[in-house]
Each structure stands twice: as structure tokens, then as C-alpha cells.
Design a protein that fits this description.
By secondary structure, the chain is an alpha/beta fold. Helix content is 43%, strand content 19%. It has three domains: 8-182, NAD(P)-binding Rossmann-like Domain (Rossmann fold), CATH 3.40.50; 187-283, N-(1-d-carboxylethyl)-l-norvaline Dehydrogenase, domain 2 (Orthogonal Bundle); 324-472, Thiol Ester Dehydrase, Chain A. Helix 2 runs parallel beside helix 12 (286-306), helix 9 packs across helix 10 and helix 12 (286-306) packs across helix 13 (311-321). It starts with 7 loop residues before the first strand and ends with a helix. Bound molecules: nicotinamide-adenine-dinucleotide.
Length: 474
């Protein structure tokens, strides 16, 4: 198996999951070939891609790479040529999947990874009668694939290691499931909750909305940031996990739940659930619900980003690997305005006027100043050593509006760089190179111990003086 990444993927089956994979690969810069016999597939892909474009770039604080090229292939054979990653996302039937794998054996590169999205089948079932079984692994994603980071990987260890490289490069969170098991880990847990939910409806105890409310106003909030066991550790108080199990463990034997029993899915029960669901959410189309879900997910994950926790920590790591607006070397060399920010406006930066709230312009200019500081050597290590710059004055001029999803960049100029004083001018542009906002920002160098103004180090002073002299000539 190879570990090089040629950034060419192929997706077989462009339904809910396949189209999500297509969008994630394209937006992370991969070329993607798709094969799906459904004549509606191109329309469906475009709609999912529109959702992904609305959501994924806004997760990050740096611009994503240039999008890859999408090709709709006429046949599986055409789609597979040159692909190092092949997504199998056809319906959940083993005979369908086997048929695809037999065709792939003849045409796929033997170093390519064949990654099945299957929710339930084990690799050993997928690999039956395969000439190259190690090539086929489970890479089980979660919907929407373009936003949710987790992918459960099951299969040959070497193939899984290579698969991890690819999924890392897509900003995902590959988790190696070490023992194969029906439905992997995530869906095993979900099935237990779902089964219990069906009983609660069947027995007339709760409606679909009431069950969803219990999750979204209650434990769902805890799960999104700490999961099950870390949450229960805290629930045990200072006595910890052993105490928690001692207190609540016996309930498992009473038992509170219906354990493995499943209510019979009679027409009456299905109608009851579908009717309650219509009443709960029928006033939104599925596409509207998808947008609501995506905007909420982006906002929640961005909140976790600020805490550098869970899914937010992953986003911060991806941000570090994304290209910075302009390398510091380029900035120094060019004796021109510094490109200090290049990003997309995330959905949670907009307000009731449906445009970027004025406070967020301040955040963009603060990020621009942080970049200038890094360029003159006042970087994180410098701050850790007890010195920094504080902003004491800002003059922001709003020229035109910015909306969610829009790309912006900032050019910064040193207007004054002497002694303790640093004065910057930032100009924010949109993707059409139209000036949308300007800021004049005055900063003072400070000693972080005394919290009083102080002189910068000689090295920072020297770099700043050089930049100032260059910018005076502009
Ligand atoms: N829906 C989910 O939430 C979810 C989540 C994780 C994993 N999965 C798994 O992903 C896989 C796909 O599920 P889905 O929900 O996207 O199904 P889907 O029905 O939405 O999409 C399947 C697509 O495969 C196409 N297809 C059928 N035969 C084909 C063939 N021979 N070649 C190429 N394309 C073909 C269909 O036209 C359809 O567009 C399943 O294995 C499922 O278990 C689903």
C-alpha cells in the first residue's frame, strides 16, 4: 500500500452519504469522479454541494485549498481510473456491495483503498471471495459527511494506517475500531437509544418531539463535548467513576430499559411516529432542515474551537495546517502591504440584519494585528516570555456589508513603529477585490507582569523599524 496522496478520489453511489463524501473531498482540494446510475444524481450532488459550501469553509479561520474538479462518469470503470481512494456508498445490501467489489478487482489500482461506508457490515463480510481482501476496509462516516468529523475505520491494520493519512488530510477524525463487530461502535450506541425511543412512543409515554427535547435540552449538550464516560465521571462527584457505578449500576439490573426487545413496527406504530414527526417538523422541507442542522453544527463546533476542546480542538489543528494568508517570509520579502487575513465569514458571525455583525470586524482586525506581531517577532513565544502588544484605540470605517460564506482578505500597513508605539492600517476586501472596511489601530507594547507599557525587545524593535521604513515608501 502506498502512503502518497495524489488527491484523486472516486465515489460510487451519490446518495445521502456518497454526495457528502463528494463535497468533503472537493472542498478539501481533491479531484473526484462519481458514478451513480440514477439520472437525478448530478442534481442531488449539486444540492448537497451547495449545503457543504454554505457550511464547511466557515468552520475554519483560514481559507481552504482551491476546490478540486468534479467529473460525473458514465461507468464505474471510467470513474475508478487513477483514483487512490474509492468510496463505496451504494445501498446497504451485501449482494450490491459484492457486485461492486468484483468489478473493482478488475479495474482499480491495487494500491487504492476501497473504503465502504457501510453502517452495519463487517470487513470480513465485505471481503468474501475477494482476490485482494486487505484493500477493502470499512470507513463509516456520519451524516452530513462534509461536517461531522468522525469516520470509523475497520479492517487490515496497514490499510487503516494509510487511510488515516487521507482522512486526516480531509480534516476528519479517523477512529480505528480494533475488532470487527456488526454496526461498529457509533451505530451500536445509537441503536440502543433509538430502540428505547421507539418503546417510549409505542407505550404512549412520549412523542417524537418530547424525546428530541430530552436530548437537545439535556444530555445531548453534554454528549457533544464530553461524551458518555467523561460526563459520568463528573456525575460521580469527588468520589469519581467507581462511586457513580456503585450508585447507578444496580439500575441496569432492575431494569429501567427494555433491553434487547424491539416493539413490533406495525403500520399503526409507524403511522404514529411519522404523524408525530410531521407535526414536529413538517413545516420545514428536508433541505431547510439540513441548512438549520448545518448552521447549528457549525456554530456549536466553532464554540468548541474557542475552547480548544473535542471537535473544536480538531478544527484548530486543521487551521494550523491550512495555508496562512501569506507566509511571513513572503511578507517580509515583498516590501508591500502585508496580507494578514484570508478567510470565509462563518454563519455564527452574522446578526439579525443577515450580515456580519460589527463586532466581528474587530475580531478580523485583531487577527490581522496578531499576524503583524508574528511578522515582527512578537509571536506566541514572545508573549509567553512576558511581553506583548495591547490595542488602545481602533477607528473602524464600515464601507459595505459582508454575508456568511463570503471570502475576505485583509492588507495591513505599518503607519508608525517607534519605541512602544505601533500604529496599523488594515484594509478589508471581498473576493471581488472591493474595499469593504478599514481600520486604524493603535497598539502599545506592554510588560505582561506589570501590565504597563514598556519598550519591546531589541530584536522586535529592529524588525518593526525595518517594516515601518518599507511601508513609509508605499
Ligand atoms: N444515510 C445515513 O445516515 C448513513 C450513514 C452512514 C453510512 N451509511 C451507509 O452508506 C451507504 C449508502 O447509504 P445512503 O444513505 O447514502 O443510501 P442512498 O440510498 O441515499 O444512496 C445510494 C445511492 O447508490 C446508488 N447506486 C445504486 N446502485 C449503484 C451502483 N451499482 N453503482 C453506483 N451507484 C449505485 C443509488 O442510485 C443511490 O443514489 C450504505 O451502506 C449505508 O449503510 C448511511
Amino acid at each position: 500500500m502506498t502512503t502518497t496522496i495524489n488527491r484523486k478520489a472516486c465515489v460510487l453511489g451519490a446518495g445521502v452519504i456518497g454526495a457528502g463524501w463528494v463535497s468533503r473531498f472537493l472542498l478539501m482540494g481533491w479531484d473526484v469522479n462519481v458514478y451513480d446510475p440514477d439520472p437525478e444524481a448530478p442534481r442531488k450532488i449539486q444540492e448537497v454541494m451547495n449545503n457543504a459550501l454554505n457550511a464547511l469553509p466557515g468552520l475554519y479561520d483560514h481559507k481552504l485549498p482551491e476546490s478540486g474538479k468534479l467529473t460525473i462518469a458514465e461507468s464505474l470503470e471510467d470513474a475508478v481510473i487513477g483514483s487512490e481512494w474509492i468510496v463505496e456508498a451504494v445501498p446497504e445490501r451485501l449482494d450490491f456491495k459484492h457486485k461492486i467489489f468484483r468489478l473493482l478487482e478488475a479495474v482499480a489500482d491495487e494500491n487504492a483503498i476501497i473504503a465502504s461506508s457501510t453502517s452495519g457490515f463487517k470487513p470480513s463480510e465485505l471481503q468474501q471471495d475477494s482476490a485482494r481482501p486487505k484493500q477493502i476496509i470499512v470507513a463509516h462516516p456520519f451524516n452530513p459527511v462534509y461536517l461531522i468529523p468522525l469516520v470509523e475505520l475497520v479492517g487490515d491494520e496497514d490499510t487503516v494506517v494509510n487511510a488515516k493519512h487521507v482522512l486526516d488530510s480531509l480534516g476528519m477524525f479517523p477512529l480505528h475500531v480494533r475488532k470487527e463487530i456488526d454496526a461498529h461502535i457509533g451505530d451500536r450506541l445509537l441503536e440502543a437509544v433509538w430502540r428505547e425511543g421507539l418503546w417510549l412512543i409505542n407505550d404512549g409515554i412520549a412523542t417524537t418531539k418530547e424525546i428530541d427535547d430530552v436530548i437537545r435540552y439535556g444530555f445531548g449538550l453534554r454528549w457533544a463535548q464530553m461524551g458518555l464516560f467523561e460526563t459520568y465521571r463528573i456525575a460521580g462527584g469527588e468520589a469519581g467513576m467507581a462511586h457513580f457505578i456503585g450508585q447507578f449500576g444496580p439500575c441496569l439490573e432492575w431494569p429501567w430499559t427494555k433491553l434487547m426487545d424491539v416493539p413490533e413496527l406495525t403500520d399503526e406504530l409507524v403511522d404514529k411516529i411519522a404523524g408525530q414527526s410531521d407535526q414536529q417538523s413538517g413545516h420545514h422541507s428536508i433541505r431547510e432542515l439540513e441548512r438549520i442542522r448545518d448552521d447549528n453544527l457549525v456554530s456549536m463546533m466553532r464554540a468548541l474551537k474557542g475552547r480548544n476542546w473535542g471537535a473544536g480542538e480538531l478544527l484548530n489543528n486543521v487551521d494550523k495546517s491550512l495555508k496562512q494568508p501569506q507566509t511571513q517570509e513572503e511578507n517580509k520579502k515583498n516590501a508591500s502591504l502585508l496580507k494578514t487575513v484570508e478567510r470565509v465569514i462563518p454563519i455564527n458571525w452574522t446578526d439579525y440584519n443577515n450580515h456580519m455583525n460589527e463586532s466581528r470586524y474587530g475580531q478580523v482586525f485583531s487577527d490581522a494585528a496578531t499576524e503583524v506581531m508574528a511578522i515582527i517577532g512578537a509571536d506566541q513565544a514572545y508573549v509567553d516570555s512576558g511581553k506583548s502588544y495591547f490595542t488602545v484605540e481602533n477607528h473602524i470605517k464600515y464601507i459595505s456589508e459582508c454575508v456568511a460564506g463570503e471570502e475576505i482578505y485583509v492588507l495591513s500597513k505599518v503607519l508608525l513603529g517607534e519605541g512602544k508605539k505601533l500604529k496599523l492600517q488594515h484594509q478589508m476586501y471581498n473576493a471581488k477585490d472591493e474595499l469593504v472596511c478599514t481600520d486604524e489601530q493603535f497598539l502599545l507594547h506592554v510588560d505582561l507582569k506589570t501590565r504597563k507599557s514598556s519598550m519591546p525587545s531589541d530584536e522586535v524593535a529592529k524588525k518593526l523599524a525595518y517594516l515601518f521604513s518599507q511601508h513609509q515608501q508605499l
